[in-house]
Amino acid sequence: MRMAKTMLLAGLLFSSAHATAAEPAEQTEKSFDEEVRSVDFAIKRFLRVEPGKPLMRDAELRLQMARAIVETSQNHGIPPLLLTTIVYNESTFEITALGKLGEVGLTQVHGVAARDCDLTTIEGQLDCGAKWLAHYYPICKTWEKSLTAYATRGLCVSESITTKERISYRMRMWKKIQKEFNETNETGYGG
To answer: Domain 2-11+30-186, CATH 3.30.460.80 — does that match?
Structure first.
């Protein structure tokens, strides 16, 4: 079973890497390569307790995933480490993840959010979730509220304690991984 998932992941990453790319997004403060390094660092940190995962065993697969996350983030104006945090929290980087309510893939989208999305590719799964999150940012005005809307299908503020805790946890994870990468990058030890 593990070998089949590894082969499926490798196949999806290979086909995704050769898909037609959209026009590059505007350059941000960090270079593309630095963003990829930060996302690769985050993937390793998030999955360090799961060394058997294909992304932990295969550095090239991990870099391909990191590149796809950064490209998608830049295309939608989302911080790459935020999208990485979402993917980890939603699916632990499992492209074949299925949720109880019919959620699919890396970003666990379903229903209206999945309409017009290609959920058979990594880029399609990332794009679908990123598009949905980016849709809420101008409405909700902060990433925290946008995450709430992502989780609640449109509410920038939720009264649900469970939702508040989940979003607070994701925000802490995002800030923590940013801080860890910056500290590691400053010392020159890398991830």
So the answer is: no
